[in-house]
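User: Here's a chain of 693 residues. Predict its fold as tokens.
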Amino acid sequence: MRLTPGRLLARLTIVPAVALAAWLLVAFPLLVVGQFTPLTGALLGGPAVIAALVFVPRWVPEPPEDDVPWWPVAAVVLITVAFAAVQLAYHGEALVIRRDPASYAQFTAWIAQHGSLPIPQDRDLIAGNDPAVGYGSLAYYEVGTDIWPQFLAGLPLILSVGYWIGDIPGMLLMAPLIGALGVLTFAGLAARLIGARWAPLAALILAVCQTQQWISRSTYSEIAAQVLMLGALALAFDASASKAPERASQPHALSRGTGLRDRWGATHALAGVAGLVFGLGLVVRIDAIRDLLPVVGFIALLLLARRSQALPMLAGLVLGLGYGFVAGFWLSKPYLDYLSDSLEPLLVLSAVVVVGAALATALLWRHGVPRTDRPSWLPTAVAVLAVLVVVALALRPLLFVQYGHGDEATGVYIGQVQEIEGLPVDPERTYEEMSLYWVSWYVGASTVLLATLGLAILLHRILRRREPRWVLPTMVLVWTVATTLLRPAITPDHPWASRRLIVLVIPAFILFAVWFVAWLARRFATELPASVGERPGAGRMAAAVVTAAGALVMLMPTAITAAGVMSYRSDIGTVAGTRDLCAALPEDASVLMVDGSAGNYMQLIRGMCGVPTARVLTDEVAVVDRVTAEIRERGRTPVLAASAPETLDRYVPSTTPKEHPFDVHSASDPSTLMEPPSGPWAFNGDVWIAVAG
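Assistant: Prediction complete.
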């Protein structure tokens, strides 16, 4: 079969999701059994990825759009490469644990070097079971005699490839590359749903977006989750794609098929891969449970329609979710315990959805998928409702203010940020009522407006059975947008809070907005000539004006906000500081952290320097002396570490040499509450050490 531009674009844009899924499918069991090493990864994971990339793209059918030129393919590749180049140039070096990126980086460094979990405390190399010593730190839980990292293993398993290739710098450079793959994957989804000629515009808006750039510069889990979720939507599209022209009378994707026992072929394999990729999103982020609930409903609709793709998609989803639940409840159980107040209701809701979908399928089995175009007013009512919901979200900040973080430390931090910004100090304010405004900060109010109009028209057309290809994407995107904007459930400073939006929410707004511009341009191109007496070129010219105006009003505000992250690199100098710190420690060192910096640096010293590390739970000099003596009794060199030399002076004589190997003063991500971030804050990282006794 000839490789047309449309087919090449379709194949190319599923490669990221397929590659990540194939790697996770093999790498995760290796970690579970404690054999995640460069050798096993190369021998087992490498062939799995190669096999997936050889076979799965071949199953992708010819896209329904005819006569796709080469320029959209070239433009998408150029945007992806340019994005990767910019993010590589601006990538950060977050290794000191203050927020999630460094936590994931330390997680990666540990499993890449040791290939297993949990992390041993090495009590016998410090002070045994001395009650004055603790081993847990920020994002690393002390459980019995072990230490468990906070988050799920998906992203560290992917970043480990970079660590194996290029040590710490190689790991950090993986983030920009995965972020670029997210742009490429999004272009593929846009090409399938809107048209290949519109894919470059959609990809460019996402690539320019500040949040997409920001998360791609540090080791955030959202970059991998985005690739998997958007890629799964593209694969699901391919599993049911048809070259039949789209028209009102064509068979609907959810109308009755020929039977669940049809002979399986490429479309069924793609459906299984799509379900698997969806499910593996849970290995990366626990909140994927919420985002995947519409997929359960869609599979139920496929079953009612007697579509044989339902069974492989369900099987793939179950397998992927099985990986995710093992990742959560086995390797990250302390983290899930911490999230229990929000996770348990989500699990109950998930059970209700699964049971409800099963019961609905059984009850409606004889009748098939309910008609959504009857009564005739229903599609219009749903479209109007969608607009009203967006209006309500826009009016929400004018009507009330939301309170209650549920976490005292978060409230203290928000109060500090409010003081810095000169805002009224109101620590319990969550700013969740601002969620729609957050979206408008990063892609512009014009994009939000265009997306709202696009969604309303799409819903009307879907319910009238005229947009079958949009059924699953709309179910997933609308559900995720609604639930996320209703309750973002994140510390509300920016750009930090914007990470909650980047996996599906911001892509959804861009996708619906570009679809609306495309729909409007096509209407002008086809209907205007008839209204002006078949004047040659009138329709094409009007369509070009609509396209240019739409692109301009979406790109300009997005680019203006993006300037806020183009002036700095975060935490630069941390890699060199880490190397200096590790070099300064004796080979037989056992490190005691004696001040509040313990939470930030303990896992860095333990995991990247490879020495036993603990913190003293009291500032009593006699206790520190006792613990250092216990370390010496074990034939180790006790090293005290703190963020300031004055702290060390309390525990060692003034004549004791003190070193300052970790001395980093750099830019860091800012924290804003009422406006998008426009420049960096300062990061000051200091670790002083002294040999005790």
